[in-house]
Amino acid sequence: MTNKKNKNRGRSMDFIEANGVALRCELSGGGDRTLVLVHEMGGSLESWDEVAPRFATSRRVLRYDTRGAGLSQKVRGELTLDTMAGDIAALLDQLGIAGKVALAGIAVGGAIALHFAARYPERTSAVAVGSPATGIAAERRAPALERLAKIETAGMAVAVEDSMLNGYAPELRGDIARFERFRTRWLGNDPSSYATIWRMLAAAEMQDELARLRCPVLVIGGSLDRVRPPALAQGVARAIPGARYAEIRTGHYMAVQTPDLLFDCIDEFLKSVSV
């Protein structure tokens, strides 16, 4: 393990080998409660830059680059949500974090968080997910896989304009510097790893496990999300017993686009369930 102390007190960036893969993570804050933040497809732990510090004033916050993303080890071949959830469990073990944790995830990160809750109910206190990507409709799979083949051949640039138009609505680009930083970071993804993660999503079938969840769950829809519109988020909420649904004026990459709105929504939920 390599440990680099950040200038900010109580914050450390680590590179940890866990569950057979090298993962970059950051643990900040302190206390008995822990919140795990899981970023969207094409994102990295930086997606939470304006959210994590606010949570860290009252709890430990673990954020990380999922395998295949950011500075974590790249992936090829078959990948499953089970493996992704296992990465979180292994990170918690390596960091000595025992007991239950809350999780918050965006898009595919939401699917990973929900799968963790289903696989490790004894380790999960609550889950909050924004525009959770819990699967792909059958009619969308063929064109999506064709698009992925182009990305693998020509790189991320062939898909960036469509991805930004649908996921980062022009109405949310008032802070143009923030948008340009995110767009440029998105372009830096490894195309093969991105395609591998997307194929994992295309193969996901989560309906049965969603119905078995018993921890408190909040599903958040983005009114400006054109990748996964609010109706899809509402469908996930309906599939989970007792889940709450909230809608905010944001898009698909909500942790980046509207960090204040997202923090307030998740924070209110966690406080309401005493987590």
From TrEMBL:
Cross-referenced InterPro entries: AB_hydrolase, AB_hydrolase_1, AB_hydrolase_fold, Hydrolase_4
Residues annotated as domain Serine aminopeptidase S33: 33-242
Superkingdom assignment: Bacteria
Gene3D superfamilies reported in the protein's UniProt record: alpha/beta hydrolase
PANTHER family with a match to the protein in the record: AB HYDROLASE-1 DOMAIN-CONTAINING PROTEIN, HYDROLASE, ALPHA/BETA FOLD FAMILY PROTEIN
Protein name: Serine aminopeptidase S33 domain-containing protein
